[in-house]
């Protein structure tokens, strides 16, 4: 594996499968009453969050702590960063503190790449602008595999604001690596103009794609996008691209519904769909901790896993 | 004033000849000239002599951003790049939108003495795109402004653009348009295409440039005015300009060295790292197809001139995440080497063609007398000597500019300016400031 996890494209098929398999072992640990492993004892993981994202930060924090790493949470809000300190100065501070891994969430696409130029530790991208969110894609793949088995040939439909979605970019890359067949469904305004060069199919017709889907992943769509003419209204968006009970009924019986959260219930997904047994949304949160443990463990080269499901 | 005898220079790449510079002019050109008493001799064997280069598009940043560049440092870089005149863009602080500011910049250039500084006047007050600046006052000032531009911003209002084009006819001025439709480029970060889609950076579509160029060509034709298009960056823009010229309309265009060489995939992968804002520039780097179209257009004359768009920025404005970084690259010292690489070594242009596009034509567009004249007896002694066989690895720290934001770091570029003369006085000798 590479030293950093910045893009899902950093992972070979073997790398991705190793992470998923490692996460499977760690999931066994998570079911024990004492969830903690000593493997990253004495290592320092910094959570560097320039955007509010309590869920992702807690997920990484729990993952690092279960591996016994020292965790430093560095929130940009209220710190010197909001007073004009540059990303570079923050990086130099982290470097001076000797961080072994830096988990970064940033509003600017590419910020983790820049950080990797300035610090020696491993960089884990926890979401950068509208670029990527590779651990989300890994936990999505992990959740799919637990429900459906190996992903080769599985048909995954990703619906919504692909243009602004880091989740979609990482999922398209990782799922292609894992051999799944991805179809993106969105109004044309919410697809990049060059999306034809991506390793996936494109459709504007959700109803036509649903019966052929093993997985339907709904992306969050911000209502404010209609103000920039990406779509006329929330109602029209919901009518054409929202996943409601009728559309759920058009999916094959085994097919599952996913959402990276946070959801707009009633917009891209109906509440009863989100809460149905077909939905993996709660599992995705649980699996998030597990997959992030696997990533930190593999990037930081922790000691042998003890007590896993060998 | 010392006379200089330049021995054995290849004028525009032709047969070796000697040039005698005396009294600010080229006193004689010929083979086997002898040095008059007291004259210095410059051995120019193997060097190409070109008329002093003229840049239509330079950001000298003074007044206001002296941390990035000053007239002194910027014109040093210009002289080292072979330039004897530069046009200083108006987006300073305060904006060069009054006779007072343009005269200040002009005077700073005189005092520095490394090359002539011709201020560009703003088209609109404060570059705000609302009211015309006092174009006539700037034209009549000591700075004798003839080129007007809101560069950095587009004069997007069609009525204002029309009036500006009409108004400057009274003093033979030209509007140099930064063609960028503002609504299509809100928060735009890089060329809209496959790379921007993958990188999740907001796209700057080619159509935002092409739509404005098409409109402006039609406006210029309608009112019978001169239009100059700044930093053309797309194949589509080339087609529109070619069409406008075919109608006989008075449209000229420039291309930057970086748009002749670099492409948008450098944002994704380069030896300088992904998302490195050293490649962030406006208009953005485009695709290989655009680069090929721009080279062909410069070769066939559709694009008239090379202009540097030298845009210095301090380190802290570039060592950031991509979205927060300033747009622009320095380019005065690397302009001629990049043109040699992209145009001469590809066989698209010869040295005479380069002289036309980097000296004679920009001087004519800027209505700048004394520059761009042929290297013959009686012309003002503005010229530069280039060693085309030299190879230099670009080192940002070696730049005479105050800023270091060159995209060519580590690249080996051909050609080196050995000497530059401004009205017979050396500004550069043996590759160093004289």
From TrEMBL, chain A:
Pathway: Pyrimidine metabolism; UMP biosynthesis via de novo pathway; (S)-dihydroorotate from bicarbonate: step 2/3. PROSITE patterns: CARBAMOYLTRANSFERASE. NCBIfam families: asp_carb_tr, PRK00856.1. SUPFAM superfamilies: Aspartate/ornithine carbamoyltransferase. This is Aspartate carbamoyltransferase. It catalyses: carbamoyl phosphate + L-aspartate = N-carbamoyl-L-aspartate + phosphate + H(+). It comes from the Bacteria. It comes from Sinosporangium siamense. Carbamoyl phosphate binds at residues 55-56, 105, 133, 136, 261-262. One of its GO terms (cellular component) is cytosol. Catalyzes the condensation of carbamoyl phosphate and aspartate to form carbamoyl aspartate and inorganic phosphate, the committed step in the de novo pyrimidine nucleotide biosynthesis pathway.
TrEMBL record, chain B:
This is Dihydroorotase. Keywords: Hydrolase, Metal-binding, Pyrimidine biosynthesis, Zinc. Its cofactor is Zn(2+). Pfam families: DHOase (PF12890). PROSITE patterns: DIHYDROOROTASE_2. Pathway: Pyrimidine metabolism; UMP biosynthesis via de novo pathway; (S)-dihydroorotate from bicarbonate: step 3/3. It catalyses: (S)-dihydroorotate + H2O = N-carbamoyl-L-aspartate + H(+). HAMAP family: PyrC_classI_B. It comes from Sinosporangium siamense. The keyword Zinc applies. Residues 48-235 form the Dihydroorotase catalytic domain. The gene is pyrC. Belongs to the metallo-dependent hydrolases superfamily. DHOase family. Class I DHOase subfamily.
